Amino acid sequence: MSYRSLINLRKSSLNIKQSSRIMIEDYLIQGGQGNMSSSTIIPKPSYYKGPKYEQLHYKTVGNLIDEAAEKYPNREAIMSVHQNRKVTFSKLKHEVDELAAGLLEIGMKPGDRLCLMGSNSIEWEITLLASIKAGLIAVNINPLYKKNELHHSLSKVDAKMLIALENNQNQDYYGLLKSIVPEISQQPYGKPVITRHLPNLEFIVLDTEKNLPGIIKYWDVCQSGSKKSISYLKKLNQEMSPNAICNIQFTSGTTGAPKGACLTHYNIVNNSYFFCKRLKLMEKEHRILLQVPFFHTFGTVVGILVSLNSGSTLVLPALGYKPIESAKAVLYERCTFLYGTPTMYIDLINASKTLMDQGHTFTTPEIALCSGALCSPSLLKQVKMTFNIKRIVSIYGMTEASPIAFLSNSNESEHKSLTTVGQVLDHTEVKVVDKNGLTVPMGVPGEVWFKGYNVMPGYWNDEEMTKKAITEDGWLRSGDILILSEDGYGMVTGRIKDIIIRGGENIQPQSIEYFLESHPEIIQAQVFGIPDERLGEVVCAAIKITNESNLDDETVKNYCNGNIARFKVPKYVLIMEDFPKTTTGKIQKIKLREIMQDHLRNMKNLQ
Fold this sequence. Notes:
9-stranded mixed beta sheet, alpha/beta, GMP Synthetase, Chain A, domain 3, EC 6.2.1.2, ANL_N_sf, Rossmann fold, 607 residues, Medium-chain acyl-CoA ligase ACSF2, mitochondrial, ligase, single chain, AMP-bd_C
């Protein structure tokens, strides 16, 4: 499909008449004060309420664990390829209860914050679920955090315990902890720690066989539960409120220090359930390729909790991110449902070619879901062709929305899946507003806001940022620009902060990125603005090209000339091997701007 055909398809999918659109825009330019004739069609406001075919569930994560063990006792809950180990739902419940009782036995109390640090493993899932079932608040910590980031996270939530799972890899968590809490090297093994640097921190747990000063062994905690703590655990789960905070997710922090988004049982149990319900995952036993990290809200909710709700098996291909291992897992573990970000899918396609060259074909994948960033239609088509996918699933949301707000329907047309982020999820309200917070007409772009059960209560210990994120009447501001159609489908066109203002013209980078990616030799494109004395900003592009390509900056510009508006043609083009990313895999445009500006300064100095 050509770029122009794709754009026409995107427009038609939103069912907006151009004549009405012009009248709407004229009306808005006048600030909503213009005289509109009686014959003028005033469209509906850009608002949609998700369906309510089924009531919300008032239950806890602990209830989900117990129900999954009862419904699917002998089915695999998780298969960790890199550990060569699998665990059934029945065994998962047993190990979760064992660790939960151990946590209570050594002195953890409901409401205490337990920080969990580590890469994807069976122990990570067990620890998360055990801490939540024990009434604690599990705080997901990025395993790549360094000294300052880890100290900030532990301090921000007043953590009482840190569990770091090294998984016999190269992470020296003990060395990292000594740099933050130097006193631990002088304290006894197997006992609570006392530190002035983090006065609330009492327990540091590592999955090590060594008797390290100031450290408690992970396996000792697992085996420390008593009849008393087991009995207390049962009582806790009978009395636990679904409205209690059970998880804190740190946002990526690309615009400042990470904020701790608080999520309740009610938030994440229902969000994961209605994901499963809409995609009909309960109707068939699925094996999910989970490349995304557990510590991210997607891995926690759309990974672990979706597995509990649907009886699906999570397949962990590797401890870290290794595309070739992911491709092998799809093949040898017979995965039916693929999860990934755009970057992961690009890498997975390339890795899969190695296996296909050896004569292998992919026959089991049925569904592919792209998350974490906007995925171009051209990439989604490549995914579909490479893995013989029957259905592409679009999804959109944010950590603070638990995380899903939009999701594909199981029976929607292919062009809906390729051109939108799905339809508003059940029991969720959505509206699109202008810069003053006023609802725009249907089909007009603006900032998308969410309201409903899935909106977080707030950021941990940060009332100021919570007020900035959530309005007094409960609407969560997203910072994303979206066009909403009358049937509840949305099309995200970018981030408000990414808009390029060139000579007074507002330019959305996404449309230029999609055009550039329509070139057969361009794998991925990122478009952004840099300061310019005359125009305010100018358009720049960073691109990744195929190994065989001879593209340079001038040929890329020539490709744009005559095909897109002149003011959208990038003034500067930089060809890169890879893009800078956050630890959750999101491309950092702020760093791309810095790289481009450094490149231009260096070029100027050489002249």
